[in-house]
Amino acid sequence: MRRVSRITIAGVATAALAVTVSACGSSSSSSSTEGKSKGIGLAYDVGGKGDQSFNDAAYAGLQKAQKDFGVGARDVEPQDNETDADKAQRLETLAKAGYNPVIGVGFAYAGAVKEAAAKFPKVTFGIIDDNQTRAKNVADMVFHEEQSSYLAGVAAAKATKKNHIGFIGGVDVPLIHKFEAGYIQGAKSVNPKIKVESQYLTQTAQEGGFSSPDKGENAANGQIDAGADVVYAAAGLSGQGVIKSAAEHKVWAIGVDSDQYNQAALAQYKKYILTSALKNVEGAVYELSKSVIKDKKPLSGEIRGSLANGGVGLADSNPAFKSNADIQVAVKKAEAGIKNGTIKVKTS
What we know:
Number of helices: 10
Helix content: 25-40%
Number of strands: 14
Largest sheet: 8 strands, mixed
Distance between the termini: 31 Å
Low-confidence stretches: 1-27, 29-35
């Protein structure tokens, strides 16, 4: 029977990693146990570690699990212009080396996870942002991104001084449509006449939509020049360019996936990061690892994070956001409505 589990919040821990090189891309690894399972294998999405967003959230979950459960870990970077076969080989290499669970970060791993899981039925595989793979040894870790994006839209509509906001998606795919749909719906719930600029950086991930800060910066410059004074990006590493542009123009940026106000690499821009639409990728990685390593009862099936179970949310680290009573009242009202079902958030 496929089981559905609640995704809980996991804190960030730190760990020192020794750098190695793999045939499937650059990787870092460490092992605290000999003669036992190697621990957790993690394969990053485009943009890789250091995106201050999606991939870094997965890495934080790996670090905490590694520390809490006393196991080793290996995380592997993607390559430019790689194929599905490259991704499958990466996962299979981790499984062969003794890592369990093995987790693919991002929907691009869907085919690779399906293939690798069939070859290694005793290894638990996880995939984030995709629920297509139906296998007893696969956990499909997905989220209601539209819910946190709705709250981001409410906040944006309350923060704008021009009734003009923007959305920048990394790649024009259904997953990112959920971010856009929720954001626009949330903003229009506050002001039906609000103007929303909306743009996707590329049609495919291979074109760099999730991995090109320059593309994000150029898009944000255009939206801000057009009049937007709050810009929300769901664009992975490209979002760093959006945040940079917003700070340079002294307008608001809204981050995504991780609490980008607290990301060290973005510290010089943090004053202009109003909030972030959170997706608890960290907790998803941690909980799957816990189920395999500690509980010995591997999770499988669809595991979906929502506002109700803490899998998505809105960051309040910026004092300017947290102390704004108008924004706080509106966001809390919207959150309550989503949780009790009176607000139905669109996904497209």
